[in-house]
Structures are given as structure tokens and as C-alpha cells.
Amino acid sequence: MFDILSVLPSRKRNTPSGWITFNCVCCTHQGHKPDKRSRGGLRFDGQYSWVYACFNCNYRCGFTLGKPIPQKTRQMLQWCGIDDEQIGRWNLQSLEQRDLLDTLLDVPVRKKIEFETRQLPESAQLLDADNRAHHQYINYLHSRGFKHTDYPFMVTPTDAGRNSNRIIIPYTYKNKIVGHTSRYRDDKKPKYINEQQPGYVFGVDLQKPEYSIAIVVEGIFDALSINGLAVMHSDISPDQAHLINSLNRRVIVVPDQDASGIEMCDRALEYGYSVSIPPWHYTVKDVNDAVLRYGKVATLLSIIQYATTSKIKIEMRRRRISAK
Hints:
By secondary structure, the chain is α+β, with helices and mostly antiparallel strands. Helices cover 29% and strands 19% of the residues. The chain is built from ten helices and 15 strands. It has a five-stranded antiparallel sheet with strand order 1-2-3-4-5, covered by helices on one side. The protein has a five-stranded antiparallel sheet with strand order 6-7-8-9-10, with no helix packed on it. It has a five-stranded mixed sheet with strand order 12-11-13-14-15, with helices on both faces. The longest helix has 13 residues, at 84-96. The protein is elongated. The protein starts with 12 loop residues before the first strand and ends with a helix.
């Protein structure tokens, strides 16, 4: 776990009341003159948990092992010269301690991540370019920027009603089928019907060991566009966050650029994730749209470039989305 004392000013003094005092790193960012009288203070609550307070500018924050690093603490660390990537690693280290702490405190441990095997519709057929009846579905995927071989897409052209006009995307976890979604091509509502188990996140099986970042999006085609993770709605449940955190990498959440996507930002910050809202063209509503317009590499670069944990920056970009 990170050593907070190593990132604070070097001149420190221990007080009889248990505070460690030093020149505050926050005063100049709060509209005050630089502190030269050691009015910043930190006090430990255990080996790693601590509180920070300035007795001049009144900036206060803290850290509790096993919980996400709060936004005000992130801000203080940034003022100490720590970059977002390092803060993200420290945040993951803290969250990794949660199950251990729960065990030591005799608190029920979060359940093991597992999902039941599910069956796909019996009439489902794997897309085949040699089957002329499948060409309409393949053409639809091409319009979304995919080849039919990019994923085991399936269809049910012999089914009755709307089901004859859908593309099935299987859900897998540890290479077994655990559900699926149906995307209907008639654009009537609902466009998607999901068979999704609680806590499931699409795309975990697509992540590679060498990835250092996990990009979380709302829609399944968005995830497929960039080898990301999809939660399939505008919120991230605690069980989904547990599964995402198990990947042990920096997490960047990219909300849809519409009213529903805005809701994901607050949840992402609550979990200690970065949020990215790139300044894409006003016609670009999500990651899949961005890939179609700019290409995969440019889209990924823009997501990483605009990733932040600054609540002020995120709020400014959310307002731009609201104005679309």
C-alpha cells in the first residue's frame, strides 16, 4: 500500500497530540498564500488509514484502507505531484485489501465470482457468409463496423415474429455460455432483450493479460469496438464493480454522450474509476459511433487522453453533453 508520508513535504514534525505537521500543499490551490508555518497536518488511524487537515485553508480529506480513494484525497495527491495513473494503482491496491479486511473483522466476504451455464436458443445459427439468408444480418454488422467473424454472432431466421430479425450475441465467462443479448434490427423498442445474470460484465473474456487499462462502456457494440467491458445499462452495480476490480488494472469509464450516460459518471467516481468524455463531434453518441467516425486507434487515444478523476472537469464535460 502507498506511503502517504513519502509524497508530503520533507520537513515534518510530530506533535504530542499525534499529528504530523508540515507546510500545507493545498493553501495555494484554495486562494491562500503558500503555507510557511507548518499548518498542514496528518494523523494516522491504524497503519495505513489517515486524515488530513489544514488549519489555514481548512482543506480536509482522508483515506481508509479497503475503500476507494475519495475525490478530495485524489485532488490533494495531485497537488503533491502524483499523476492519475499512480493514484489509480494505489486505489486498486486499497480495494484489493477489502476482502482480507472483511475476513479479519468477521464480516461476510463478498461472494465468489461465478455464473451459471445458460443455453442459447435452439434455433440459433452461427453467421455464415455462404448462407444467402444470412447476408442481411452480415450487412447490418458491416454498417456497425464489424465483420461477421469478429465474434460468434448468431441469428434465428427461422423463428416467428421479431425473433427472425435479431442478432444474438452470446455472453461468456471463462469460456462458457452464461447468457446472451438479442439486438433487433427493426429498431422498435426495446432494441435489446438481455438474458443477463446479476453482476455479469460483458467482455471479461476478451481482456488480455498485457492490458493495463480496462475501458468500461454501456453498450455491447461499444465494448466490441474497442475490446472493452460493457455493463449493458447506465449504472454499475457493486457486483459488477467487484468483477471489474478483479482484473487489477486502471479502469476508465466512458459514458454514452446522452442523458442516460451522465448517470454513470457519479457511480464511476464513487468506485474510484477515471471518467473519459472526449470532445467528439456532436453526432457521435457512443464509442461505436466514435470508432466509425475516427477509427479504433484514434478513439482509444482520445479516451485515454481525456480520462480524469477531476470532478470539476467531468462536470464541465457533462454540461456539454446535456447541451447536445
